[in-house]
Design a protein that fits this description.
Strand content: under 5%
Radius of gyration: 18 Å
Shape: globular
Number of strands: 0
Helix content: 55-70%
Distance between the termini: 29 Å
Order of helices and strands: HHHHHH
Largest sheet: none
């Protein structure tokens, strides 16, 4: 099964006593860092440099700036709520890798299904808004692509397996 393959691969790469969840978390953070860096490079290139990119944010109307803060802040509250509630072991598939993860009933699971993905998506669209107002429409491919990735991940994680979010919503109380 894939979890056993990942555990074996992670231990051969990081050491026999390494934690496969920690290895996955390190890999995910590394990939996310590269993804964000390349995205900013791409957007800056499309806008004509770093100056126009910065101007998209600093020159945005006050209402847009407030919307970015409100939507982005709510998205990050959901995202950080996941880490605070189920920790690294829960976020990085520890339940699939043999860790005991408590079934959570409160925030952020009482807000929506897949709060981490919803939160990340809201944050990405909030960050994209000022750029989309001044740049070419083709820049919408970035948050749209990420939205589809998070949607796909949410569908896969609602597969009914151990630790999966029930289809149709957030985790319910026992």
């Amino acid at each position: 099964p894939p979890p056993q393959k990942w555990t074996s691969l992670s231990r051969s790469a990081a050491g026999a006593k390494s934690d496969p969840v920690h290895t996955l978390a390190t890999l995910a953070v590394s990939m996310r860092t590269v993804q964000i860096g390349l995205t900013f490079l791409y957007v800056a290139e499309e806008l004509g440099g770093w100056g126009p990119l910065a101007a998209a944010y600093t020159g945005a109307p006050l209402l847009v700036q407030l919307l970015v803060l409100a939507v982005g802040g709510f998205g990050e509250a959901l995202n950080m709520g996941i880490y605070n509630t189920i920790g690294k072991d829960g976020v990085y598939y520890g339940v699939k890798l043999g860790k005991e993860i408590p079934w959570v009933h409160g925030f952020p699971f009482n807000v929506c299904g897949h709060p981490q993905y919803v939160g990340c998506t809201l944050f990405l669209w909030a960050l994209s808004l000022p750029v989309l107002l001044v740049g070419p429409a083709s820049l919408a491919i970035v948050p749209t692509g990420w939205t589809f990735c998070y949607l796909f991940s949410g569908i896969v994680e609602s597969d009914g397996s151990k630790g999966a979010v029930p289809r149709g919503g957030s985790k319910k109380s026992k």
